[in-house]
C-alpha cells in the first residue's frame, strides 16, 4: 500500500498534481482509502464491476449491499440520477456536503449493477472533502465508496484507522487528517412517494425538513428488507459490549461521557473519553468513532455511555450507538 499525505491548508497538492497517480490507479481498477468530511471511504471506479467487487471482498461485506457513488458536482450527478424539484432544492442547499440522495437511476448511467445491487435507484453524494471531489473529476469516474472499515466494525475517521483495518487490502491510502464531521452522511430517498430518511447522519433532519417544507418519513429499521442495508441492526461494533443511557459506572467498565457533568462514580471507570465536555453535538459526532476505538483499546469488557440528546446530530449519534450496543449476530 502506498500512503500519501495531503496538507489541505495549502493548494499545493492540487497544483502539483501530487495525486495524479492515484486518479490513474482508480481508472485502472485500484482500491483507494480516501478522506471525506464524514468518514474515510474505500473508493473504486463505480463503473468498473470488477473493482467494485473488490470493495465487497476487502470489507468482507456479507452481501452486495448497494454503495454510494461520489461525484464532483450536481452536473455530474445528473448524468446518473433523475432529479426532481425536491432533489434539486436539497442539492442546492447541501451539496457539497454530508447528504446522500437516493434517486431513480438515469437511463444510460454507466454505474455498475454491483454498486446499485441491481436496484433501479442509486445513491449519490457530492462530498465537501476536496480530495474526494478532485479524484472523481481527475479520474473522470463516479467513485463508489463505503466507509473504509471491515464489515460491521467501527467506521474510520483517520487514515491510521483505515490502515489498521484494510492496510493489506488496498493499493493507496490518502491521509488528509481527521474527518471534520465524523459520522456518515444522512441518506434521504426521493425515489418513492414521500421523502424518506433512510439513515440519520452528518446533516440533521431539522435542516432537511426546513428546505423541503415537508416532513421526512423514517425508514423502519426493523423491517425484514431494510431500505438502506446499512440500517441492519448490529453495526459499528467495537470488541467490547456497549451499555447505553448509563447514569453510573460499573466496576471494570470504560466510560464514554457527554457533557460537563460526569457520573458521580466515574472514578470506577478503567478508561474515560468525553465526546464533548461542553455538550456540543457536532463535536460529539466528530469524536464518536475515535472515542469508541480508544475505549475499545483499553481492554474493558464493556463501554458505558452517558445519555446523549436526540435532536440535531444527536439522532445520528444515538443511531450509531444503538447499533454498536445491539446483540451481535
Ligand atoms: O458518509 C458516507 O456516506 C460514507 C462516505 C465514505 O461517503 N459512505 C458510506 O457508505 O457510509 P456505506 O456504503 O457505508 O453506506 C451506504 C448506505 C447503505 O446503508 C446502503 O444500503 C445505502 O447507502 N444505499 C445505497 N444505495 C441505495 C439505494 N439505491 N437505495 C437505498 N439505500 C441505498
Ligand atoms: Mg459503513
Automatic annotation (TrEMBL):
Q: Where is it found, in Gene Ontology cellular component terms?
A: cytoplasm
Question: What InterPro entries does this protein map onto?
Answer: DHBP_synth_RibB-like_a/b_dom, Sua5-like_dom, Sua5/YwlC_C, Sua5_C, T(6)A37_SUA5, TC-AMP_synthase_SUA5
Q: Which residues cross the membrane?
A: none
Q: Where is the YrdC-like domain?
A: 16-203
> What EC class is this?
transferase
Keyword Acetylation attached: no
* Keywords per UniProt: ATP-binding, Cytoplasm, Nucleotide-binding, Nucleotidyltransferase, Transferase, tRNA processing
Which cell locations does it reside in? Cytoplasm
Keyword Aminoacyl-tRNA synthetase listed: no
Q: Which GO terms describe its molecular function?
A: ATP binding; double-stranded RNA binding; L-threonylcarbamoyladenylate synthase; tRNA binding
GO BP term, pick one: tRNA processing
The reaction(s) catalysed by this protein are: L-threonine + hydrogencarbonate + ATP = L-threonylcarbamoyladenylate + diphosphate + H2O
Q: What is its EC number?
A: 2.7.7.87
Q: Which residues bind L-threonine?
A: 38, 70, 125, 145, 185
| Pfam assignment, any one | Sua5_C
Q: Say what the protein does.
A: Required for the formation of a threonylcarbamoyl group on adenosine at position 37 (t(6)A37) in tRNAs that read codons beginning with adenine.
Q: Which family does it belong to?
A: Belongs to the SUA5 family.
- What is the protein name given in its UniProt record? Threonylcarbamoyl-AMP synthase
Native organism is Pannonibacter tanglangensis
